[in-house]
Design a protein that fits this description.
Blueprint lengths: L1 H34 L1 H12 E6 L6 E2 L5 E13 L6 H19 L4 H14 L4 E9 H7 L8 H5 L1 E10 L7 H4 L1 E2 L5 E2 H5 L1 H4 L4 E8 L3 E5 L12 E4 L3 H18 L3 E8 L5 E9 L5 E2 L16 H11 L7 E3 L4 E4 L2 E4 L8 E3 H6 L3 H12 L3 H10 L30 H6 L8 H12 L4 E2 L4 E6 L2 E5 L4 E3 L5 H16 L14 E11 L2 E14 L6 E8 L8 H4 L1 H14 L23 E3 H11 L3 E3 L5 E7 L2 E6 L15 H10 L3 E6 L3 E4 L12 E6 L1
Parallel strand pairs: 2-10, 26-28, 29-31
Antiparallel strand pairs: 1-8, 2-3, 3-4, 3-5, 6-7, 8-9, 10-19, 11-12, 11-24, 12-13, 14-17, 15-16, 18-21, 19-20, 22-23, 23-24, 25-27, 27-28, 30-31
Length: 695
């Protein structure tokens, strides 16, 4: 009996708890329904409806002549709202629509698509993706003519969601320079660096969340339309870009190199016409991965240009002075500096030492003249802006690493090492800007890759040539530096690329690669220079890392690539070698063409032809002044230590006068002189060269 009562008691207690719980559920449900109803309804709406970002269409990137380098093409996702079409439209068109889908996508049968459409209709699906494949605009137009879909979004339930995909018409050409931007707004190249201009302003649209987590766009008055991005007008020449990339690819394959880079720039404007970067994947393939033009490297022998500039500016050193390089080795504080030529150069002039890239000569000269005042030498890096960023338009430019007296690690060997390009790091852009300044009459300018930011055909922002240093050195030093760079190609380490229809000036570079604190047997080979040497229009730098084989020097690896590109530019640029027009006198039916020459010879010529002539000067070399149908002889512009005026003279007379004045003469063409590289009346320095064009 007691057991029975105990069981009944437990049952009653359990029943009471169940009743209380049920009453609590009813009360809570009523509270939510009637007291908090508006609150939860709003939350439900926020979950089901939301404003989402609508990406703006990115701007285009153009080459210097308006060719498309990168653009955004519209593609579309195809979806369907099965609740929109009327029964009549749906039943009449479903078979035909299924057939069109099966024929177009070729991934399902007509019956499969028909079943998908009917199931969506019967279950009331408001958003179903018909196929994951995205279609282009022309394909979209075709689909909009299909049954049901031809009724549009409001009548047929057709949904075409636009998705912009980036497209590069020239495939991988210049890919690293053009760059990319990912969904997190991170990237590289121009796409990343000018993202704020290219990206435009995103809009917002109202979306509804459907079953399966699918979001369907809803037309709403509060939708904010996206503003498309601006376009970029670059300085890149797509044809020259192709030439540079092809030449680099061929050289890297030939030498089985790890990485390579080429930059080609216009001397006067700083406009970069080509920039290519290639890296090996180890399987014989080369792709663009990194922007080597803006990475830090020890420059090696190309830096000897700075060494010579400092010596010529700060000391009484002359290019004709002698320097003993011995057997090609010299000891600095128990550390040997070596030349690459076996057995050394022995005793040579400073000019010859530079032309043959003697490390010993440069190290000894700098140690002798700057050893007690190393700060004066390092100051030249500051004056030439080699110790700070240039401000290149592509993001990611690093700060140069320059060691200075007093810094940790500075020692007695630091200065001799710097003299031939070791112990510090700068970018190839720094080196190219320096050589370009020598070509540009001493004016250093910043490289330009983007000329303007445009909206349609209107420029919103332009980027002009930016002068970094208006005078890198004195005119006298500049002349000597140009002579040195021309000598490298004519007589020195790069003489394997001379012999063209034009002249190249430049410097080879070969630097050992530092790995884990030790210099290896891997090399960074380079050649940097400009052309034509007498009237520079283009400068360029070629850098190839870790070439394999017997030839691992800048002269054998990088210099031939430079020449291949220069030859191509010379062939393409008609202004570099356009035919010379033959000068005529205004009445050459009466008088023959006589401009200047030896007075005695010209007098004999005129007398023999019956032309009236009169001397108003007793100078040996004269110019003509026409008086009616006769000629007067007047004094020609020339004098001791002065560049003579040889325009209009025959080649024989011109070369006699110029060489007599102490100039080394180079010429192009045939006929009479129509142009001379040195201005008449300018002062002549020892060893000056002059280029004359005949026509």
């Amino acid at each position: 009996m007691n057991i029975k009562r105990s069981i009944l008691l437990r049952v009653r207690v359990a029943f009471i708890f169940v009743m209380l719980f049920a009453i609590g559920v009813v009360v809570k449900t009523g509270h939510i329904q009637f007291v908090e109803g508006e609150k939860w309804a709003a939350i439900g709406e926020r979950i089901s409806f939301d404003y989402k970002r609508v990406k703006a269409t990115r701007g285009n990137i153009y080459s210097d002549n308006g060719s498309l380098l990168a653009t955004s093409l519209p593609f579309y996702k195809i979806a369907f709202d099965a609740t929109i079409p009327t029964d009549e439209i749906f039943k009449k068109g479903v078979d035909s629509l299924a057939w069109h889908l099966a024929i177009f996508f070729k991934d399902r049968s007509k019956s499969d698509y028909r079943r998908m459409l009917i199931d969506a209709r019967e279950t009331g699906k408001q958003y179903i993706i018909l196929n994951r494949k995205k279609v282009n605009y022309q394909e979209k137009k075709i689909m909009m003519g299909w049954p049901i879909m031809r009724e549009g979004r409001l009548g047929g339930g057709a949904i075409f969601e636009k998705v912009d995909l980036r497209y590069m018409p020239f495939s991988n050409l210049g890919r690293r320079t053009i760059g990319f931007i990912n969904e997190n707004d991170r990237g590289a190249g121009l796409e990343y660096s000018f993202h704020s201009h290219l990206g435009g302003q995103d809009g917002y649209a109202y979306y509804q969340k459907l079953a399966g987590g699918v979001w369907k766009p809803i037309f709403d008055a509060n939708n904010v339309k996206a503003i498309n991005g601006f376009d970029l007008q670059t300085t890149l020449d797509i044809n020259l870009q192709d030439v540079a990339e092809t030449a680099l690819h061929k050289a890297m394959a030939q030498h089985t190199a790890d990485d390579g880079m080429i930059v080609v720039m216009e001397v006067k404007t700083g406009e970069v016409k080509a920039i290519t970067n290639l890296s090996s994947d180890g399987n014989g393939n080369f792709t663009e991965k990194l922007n080597f033009a803006a990475r830090l490297f020890e420059p090696g022998s190309t830096f000897k240009l700075v060494t010579m500039m400092a010596l010529l500016e700060e000391t009484n050193v002359e290019l004709t002075d002698s320097i003993d390089t011995g057997n090609g080795e010299f000891l600095f504080y128990n550390i040997k500096v070596r030349d690459h030529e076996e057995g050394g150069l022995g005793k040579v002039t400073i000019q010859e030492a530079f032309e043959h890239s003697s490390n010993v000569a440069m190290a000894r000269l700098v140690d002798e003249h700057f050893g007690l005042k190393p700060g004066n030498f390092v100051r030249y890096l500051d004056n030439l802006n080699l110790s700070k960023r240039l401000g290149i338009q592509i993001s990611g430019e690093p700060e140069p690493k320059i060691k200075r007296p007093g810094d940790k690690g500075w020692s007695g060997i630091s200065l001799p090492w710097m003299a031939h390009g070791y112990g510090f790091e700068i970018t190839p852009f720094h080196t190219l800007a320096l050589f370009n300044a020598v070509a540009n009459d001493g004016v250093m300018i910043k490289p330009v890759i983007v000329k303007s930011v445009n909206k349609a055909d209107e420029a919103e922002e332009t980027f002009e040539t930016d002068v970094i240093n208006s005078r890198i050195c004195s005119d006298r030093t500049l002349k000597q530096l140009r002579r040195l760079l021309e000598g490298v190609v004519e007589n020195g380490t790069a003489k394997n690329i001379k012999g063209t229809h034009y002249r190249i000036a430049g410097k080879t570079g070969t630097a050992q690669i530092l790995e884990n604190g030790r210099y290896t047997k891997k090399y960074l080979t380079s050649f940097v220079g400009y052309f034509p040497a007498h009237a520079p229009k283009y400068s360029a730098m070629v850098l190839i890392k870790n070439p394999r084989g017997w030839y691992q020097y800048g002269s054998n690896v990088a210099a031939p690539v430079f020449k291949e590109i220069a030859d191509n530019i010379y062939a393409r640029d008609i202004q570099l070698h356009e035919p010379m027009s033959i000068l005529r006198d205004v009445n050459d039916d009466v008088l023959p063409f006589i401009k200047a020459g030896n007075q005695q010879e010209l007098t004999l010529l005129c007398n023999a032809m019956g032309i009236s002539n009169q001397a108003v000067t007793d100078e040996e070399w004269v110019r003509t002044a026409r008086v009616g149908n006769g000629i007067n002889w007047k004094k020609n512009l020339q004098g001791p230590g002065m560049v003579p005026d040889v325009s209009g003279m025959t080649f024989r007379d011109a070369i006699y006068l110029l060489e007599k004045s102490g100039l080394t003469v180079f010429f192009d063409g045939k006929g009479r002189v129509v142009n001379q590289s040195l201005n008449a009346g300018a002062r002549i320095s020892k060893g000056d060269r002059i280029y004359i064009r005949l026509g």
